[in-house]
Structures are given as C-alpha cells and as structure tokens.
Amino acid sequence: MVKPSIVWFRDDLRLADNPALRAALDRDEPVIGLYVLDDESDGVRPLGGAARWWLHGSLASLGERLRERGSVLVLRRGRAAEIVPALVDEVGAGAVFWNRRYGGAERDIDTAVKSRLRDDGITAESFGGSLLHEPWTVRTGGDTPYAVFTPFWRAVQKLPAPRAPLPEPREVPGPGRHPRSDDLDDWRLLPTRPDWAGGLRDTWEPGEPAARARLREFLRDDLGDYDRSRDEPSGEATSRLSPRLRWGEVSPFQVWHEAVEHRGSGAHAESASRFLSELGWREFSWHTLFHFPELATKNWRGEFDTFPWPRLRPSHLRAWQQGRTGVALVDAGMRELWHTGYMHNRVRMVTASFLSKNLLIDWRRGEQWFWDTLVDADGASNPFNWQWIAGSGADAAPYFRVFNPQRQLERFDPHLEYVRRWAPEHAGDEPPEPIVDLADTRRQALDAYDSVKRAAS
User: Where is this region: Disordered (predicted)?
Assistant: First the structure.
C-alpha cells in the first residue's frame, strides 16, 4: 500500500537545500507539501501586515514550483497540532518531515505533533535547515549560552564548517489524488481596503527563484564593496537577503558556502568575512531566543524592569511611525519602511535609538511597529535588535550610547542622497524642526539609565 510522505513547510519555503523535503524523497513514495497558517495556537505570534503580504507571494511561488515537479502544496488554516495529524489520517501518510523552529511556542507545537504521530506509528522527523548550528551545540566553557557576540562568533568559527547545501530536486512525485486545499486568496493575506502594498510590489518579488537570483547578484556585484559601503543607506552594498532568509527562500547554508566561494583575497576577503559575521549575528539572535523565548515581551536583562519609562505621548509615537519627527535620517528611514517594508540596517539603529532614548518610548512599542511593517521581521532578530539598541538585551549597546541622528547623517549620508529620496523637505532651505531637543532628551535618557544602574547595584 502506498503511504505518501508529508513535508510540513514553515519558514523554509524552498525546494533547494531543504532537508525535510530530501528525507521525504528518499522514501521513494509520493510527497505532499503542507503549509499551515496557524494564528490560533497559544503563544504563536500573528504575522504582521508586511509579512503576510510576503507570505502570500512566497507560497504562490512554492506551490507553482511543486506543481511543475509533479507534487502539490496543500494549504490549511488553524491549529497545527490538529491539522497535521488530521491530514495524515486523511491521506494515509506514513511519514511527516519538517525543518526545526526555535521559538518557545513553536517548539511546543512541534513536540506535541511529533509525539502524537509517533504514538500512532507514523514516522515523524525534524531537521536543521534554518541555522548553521543548532542552539544547543554552541556553549561556553561553563556550559551556558553565550551572552556576548564576539566570543560566540569566535566559538562558532572553531566548529566544523557548516554542511554543504543539498541540491534542488528535479522531480517531486505527487499523490494520485490531491487532498483538499484552501485557496490562497481566501486567506486574505494581501491588503485591499486600503491597498497599501504598492511600494512593496515595486520593491520585491517573493519566491525562491528571485531569492537565488538576488544572492548571485549580490555576490557578483556588491560583495567586494560590502565592508566599505554597507553603512551608506543611499547605496546598494547590502545584500537585501534578510526577507529571503526570514522566509527560508534561501538557506543560510547556501549563503554561507556561496559567499566563501566568492571570498577571494585582500579587501574582497575582508568584505566577505564581514558579511559572514552578519550571518553570525542572525545565528546569535536565534540562539538567544531559543534560550529566552520571551525575547519580544520581556527585558533580557532583568534590571531593566525598573527602567522609568515616562507616560506615553501618543503624538510622539505617531510622529515616529509616520516619519514626521523633524529629524532627517529618522523621517527618511520610517518612510522607507512604510513604502518598501524594509529599512537600511544603519538607519534601523538610528530610528530605534531615537524612539527609545530620545522619545523615551518603551522599545516594545517600536518592536511591534517593525513587526507589523517589515517584510523581514522574524521572531528572533526583530526583538533581539530592539533590545540591543535599548540596552536591555544580550551584548547590548552600552546604556550611555545614544545615537546622534545628525552625526549619523553627516557620516553616512553626507550628500543627503538618502534623505532627498525619502524625506526631501529636510534637504530644503527651511527643514522642519525636531519635535524634541536632541541634547535635552539625551540627558534625560542618561538620567533614566543611571537610575537603572543604581537600582541594580
């Protein structure tokens, strides 16, 4: 009796270098792809608007690619712990494979599904497809998780090299009879009233083919200038692979090995090493989430629970969200974010510092806004980076480090190319006035941080 295998896709929407898919193909049985839109299970964070837009496009691409190779992508919505076993019963599957997730709620779901399937005699296996090294494999000499990036990255570099990527399958044999699937359009992942995604459509093409093309383009054209130009928001030196990695349209193993192949020598090698360390920073954020699942809601440093956030001024929060703060680099970045679902990393740091340290607004409100508006927002990097800027996270920026947005502008956008594109009124003869005094608010931030330091001591 033919017993198909189910590949449960999640944040790995690709065919190449997909260990779960490879395991299913190795059984020499029909393969059914499954994606579950689970916004009902306890602890699972609902996707933001920009992420939902990207997911629609990436699922459409994955479904088409599976059809071209002979299989099918089944879409179901609801609690994954109920839907996966139900589909197993429906199609008489003999095995279910997936690539691991690392958030607390997601791990609980996966553990429950694996236990239930195995109790029923179904093969259920998970694989490492999203991180170069599993979080439990990188530990300090005292057998604790790393809390600082530099020694973490040093330890990672002493480990065996990441495995080679798996090839893309030419064929994926499907079942003789396709199971029922939701219509992707019925999930209403795309905005309609209003349709605010025009800038996203102009900027991005979700899906594995576009991800692979972008990786090749970056390595060919931009890697050599990465170390020198990556902090300039007006340039194209950054990889713009973050949403591709977030949705797993390309794996970190593919990025790692192809970057190493392009490394060369001299300045080119330095740029490649810097780029690979950014993959390391992504790893560090996921390892931190694995060991601290409440990263998006609680201070990693407990002493910051006493931070004296003042009463929220909604007008200040709205001005920040809309790019109407009167601060050129902040306004340009927030408008780039709204239009494209993306923001240059240097500008992300400046806008986050301005919110949490000049406006003294709780970092969690900024993290939530980025979660809703970034196409690359994931459960680890987004809160990890916000806590890093706020000073409450692992390897956090020192509490006394308050980014001066004017100095950052002078250093990284001296000719106002970025500002002219996104906030042109700041390049005119009468630029708008900032909604707060940068020097005064910096002093207020330092006073607040000093109170935390005193409380901790």
Answer: 160-188
